[in-house]
From TrEMBL:
<dbReference type="Pfam" id="PF13720">
    <property type="entry name" value="Acetyltransf_11"/>
</dbReference>
<dbReference type="InterPro" id="IPR011004">
    <property type="entry name" value="Trimer_LpxA-like_sf"/>
</dbReference>
<feature type="domain" description="UDP N-acetylglucosamine O-acyltransferase C-terminal">
    <location>
        <begin position="192"/>
        <end position="267"/>
    </location>
</feature>
<keyword id="KW-0443">Lipid metabolism</keyword>
<dbReference type="GO" id="GO:0008780">
    <property type="term" value="F:acyl-[acyl-carrier-protein]-UDP-N-acetylglucosamine O-acyltransferase activity"/>
</dbReference>
<dbReference type="InterPro" id="IPR010137">
    <property type="entry name" value="Lipid_A_LpxA"/>
</dbReference>
<keyword id="KW-0808">Transferase</keyword>
<keyword id="KW-0444">Lipid biosynthesis</keyword>
<dbReference type="InterPro" id="IPR029098">
    <property type="entry name" value="Acetyltransf_C"/>
</dbReference>
<dbReference type="InterPro" id="IPR001451">
    <property type="entry name" value="Hexapep"/>
</dbReference>
<keyword id="KW-0012">Acyltransferase</keyword>
<protein>
    <submittedName>
        <fullName>Acyl-ACP--UDP-N-acetylglucosamine O-acyltransferase</fullName>
        <ecNumber>2.3.1.129</ecNumber>
    </submittedName>
</protein>
<dbReference type="Pfam" id="PF00132">
    <property type="entry name" value="Hexapep"/>
</dbReference>
<keyword id="KW-0441">Lipid A biosynthesis</keyword>
Length: 274
């Protein structure tokens, strides 16, 4: 069968070959393309398009104007094995996935729903997950983040807004990656990455400030310089942590970004509750 795009499809349509559960909620202006499968408990917003061969399992919410490319699987159960099989089944039933408006999901992306009914796996608005990327259960990807081809995010991970994971990089479970940071290609994050940092290697270490990313985000030269100075202090492994924190305290922390950096490196992670 040949499927020809027509302007009428922009108003919303469900292809005849798609399998859509009667308990799914599909906005009249959403498009479900050929050979897609949409399960119970899925809600798809206005203007969202499942191009073809996409699987969405619920409970899951896809916001408005999301584009999902072929062979992606969204909302699958957590990839974990529990000793207690009853508990494993219960977790699989409770979890949820939420994908924000205008997200772009490219080919062969997988995103698992959470294992908690109160805290979904979340992909923020305006994110891009490129071909072959994976986001594990109970993880949060901040708005405007980009996961390049083959980037892998384990379960219970928190990525701040505007994070960039380059191709084939990975983040281990329960790690935090701060806002506007950059993980270089093939980098392996095994511990928290502070905001605004550029990290590389396995295990990934802070090499410098992400000056290019900061400028693209609209920070002025003074803010970029202040952040760069803070990152240089933090990456100086010859200084005790206490001394580094002293150097990051006021007046250096008069910069909003430096205060954010300092709060991140001093705040205990709450990922254990995810």
């Amino acid at each position: 069968m040949t499927h020809v795009h027509s302007p009428a499809a922009d108003a919303g349509s469900i292809d005849a070959t798609a399998v859509v559960d009667t308990r799914a909620e599909i906005h009249p202006r959403a498009v479900v393309g050929p050979w897609c499968r949409v399960g119970p408990g899925v809600r798809i917003g206005a203007g969202t398009r499942l191009l073809s061969h996409v699987v969405v399992e619920g409970p899951a919410v896809l916001g408005e104007d999301v584009v999902v490319h072929p062979f992606s699987v969204l909302g699958g159960a957590a990839q974990q094995r529990r000793q207690d099989r009853a508990e494993e089944r219960r977790d699989a039933e409770l979890g949820r996935l939420v994908i924000g408006d205008r997200a772009t999901i490219r080919e062969y992306v997988t995103v698992n729903r959470s294992t908690h009914d109160g805290r979904p796996t979340t992909i923020g608005a305006d994110c891009m997950l490129l071909a072959g990327a994976h986001v594990g259960h109970d993880s949060v990807v901040g708005e405007g983040s980009i996961l390049a081809n083959g980037a892998q995010v384990a379960g219970h991970v928190a990525l701040g807004g505007g994070v960039r994971l380059a191709g084939m990089s990975g983040v281990t479970q329960r790690a935090r990656v701060g806002r506007l940071s950059f993980v270089a290609g093939f980098g392996g994050v095994t511990r928290d990455v502070p905001p605004f940092a550029w990290v590389a290697g396995t295990p990934a270490s802070v090499r410098k400030a992400n000056r290019v990313g900061l400028r693209r985000a609209g920070l002025d030269d003074d803010a970029v310089d202040a952040v760069s100075a803070a990152v240089e202090i933090w990456r100086d492994q010859e200084l005790p942590v206490v001394r580094r924190l002293e150097l990051l305290a006021p007046p250096a922390a008069n910069s909003a970004e430096v205060r954010e950096f300092l709060e991140f490196v001093t705040a205990p992670s709450d990922l254990g509750s995810l």
